[in-house]
Each structure stands twice: as structure tokens, then as C-alpha cells.
Amino acid sequence: MESANPEITFEQCPYQLTQQGLPNYSEPMESELNSLEEKINQFVRLCQQLRSENIQLRQQLASAASENKHLAEKINTAAGRLEILLTQLPENEK
Fold it and tell me: Residue 25 contacts by C-beta under 8 Å, 6 or more apart in sequence?
């Protein structure tokens, strides 16, 4: 009796079962795999959509931060000018 060759791997005989005419999957398993594939595709589309929204929100945040900085500078400039004007007003004499 010959012993099985331990050197044989799936890489050498990847489709031994299917070559014997056995089906790859049962019908219910095929249906489940199709359903899983669709769910994975939906997940991938959702990830792509969320990535796109994330990029857009980061751009909006950067724009808002820039605008906020600009407005803060304008407020500081206006406050400085008001300080100068207030020092130029004559004091009320009673």
C-alpha cells in the first residue's frame, strides 16, 4: 500500500472536488453568497459616499475656520479703532 504524498497541495490540485463532478455550492449557499456579495457592495458604496462627504465637510470646516479668523481680525481692528475714537472724545464736564 502506497502512502499519500505529503508534497501535494491545493496549489497543485486546486479543483480536485469539482473535477470529480461535484457541485461547488448548494443552491441555498449560492443564494446566501449572492446576498452577502450585495451587502458588501452596498457597504463599499456607503464607505465611498461617507469618504466623499467627509472630504467635503473637511473643506467646509477649513473654509469656516478661515472666515472665522478673518472676522475675528476685523472685530479686533474695529475694537482698536473704537478705542482710539473714545480717547479723542472730550470728557463730560459737570
Answer: 33
What sections of 1-94 are H helices per DSSP?
16-19, 27-88
Query: Taking the mean position of all CA atoms in its chain, how far away is CA 13?
Result: 41
HSE toward the beta carbon, residue 62, CA cutoff 13 A: 6
- Cβ atoms of 33 and 25 within 8 Å: the answer is yes
What lies within 8 Å, CB to CB, of 24 at 6+ separation is 18
Question: pTM score, two decimals?
Answer: 0.54
**12-69 residue pLDDT tens:** 555 555 555 555 658 788 889 999 999 999 999 999 999 999 999 999 999 999 999 9
